[in-house]
Write a structure and sequence with these properties.
The chain has helices at 3-17, 27-40, 48-68, 78-91, 93-112, 126-135, 140-150, 160-171; strands at residues 24-25, 76-77, 123-125, 157-159. By secondary structure, the chain is mainly alpha-helical. Helix 5 (93-112) crosses helix 8 (160-171) and helix 6 packs across helix 7 (140-150). The protein starts with a helix and ends in a 7-residue tail after the last helix. Residues 5-40 form the EF-hand domain. It comes from Streptomyces mutomycini. This is EF-hand domain-containing protein. InterPro entries: EF-hand-dom_pair (IPR011992), EF_Hand_1_Ca_BS (IPR018247), EF_hand_dom (IPR002048).
Length: 178
Amino acid sequence: MDSAEYERKIAHRFAAFDQDGNGYIDRADFNAAAARLLTEFGTTARCDRGQSLYTGAEAFWQGMAGIADVDGDQRVTRQEFAGGAVKRLRDNPDRFAEIARPFLRATIAVAAGADPEGAAPASAPVAAVERALRVLGAADDIASVAARSLDTDQDGRIAEDEAVAAFSAYFTVIEPDA
C-alpha cells in the first residue's frame, strides 16, 4: 500500500467516527450516533436497550480516548487517531474490537428490537443492520454490501461476534510500504 492509499483509508475511518464533521472525535459524536440509532428504530433512551446503547457509546468513547487522546483534551484529532487508535489496532486488533463490543452489542439489540442482556448473544436481521449502517453514515450501496457480508454464516442474521470481527478487520489499516 502506498502512502496516499494509507492516508485515504485513515481519513475514511476517521470520518466514520467524526459524526458531526468538526475535525475531531469526541463524546458528542458517540452520543449523536446513539441518538440517531434510537430514533431510526423507534427506541426510547430510557428503556433498557436505549440505556445499553448510551452506556456502550460511553464505553466506546472512553476506550477510544484512552488509547488515542494524547493531549488529554477529551478530543481525538485525525493525527491522534492515526497515531493512537489505528496503531494500537494494528498492534492488538482484539483489544480495540473489545472496546467497541458493548456499543456493537447494544446497536444490534436496538436494530433487532431485543433485550441486550438476553442469555444468547444478540443478533439482528441483515436489513436492520443495513439501516443501522446508513444511520451511522455509510452510503446506501456500501451499507447494503457491508450488511450482507457481515452475515458470515448466511443465516439472515448478524450476530455480535460477526459484527465485532468485521469491525476489527475494517479498522485494521496496514502502514504504507517504506
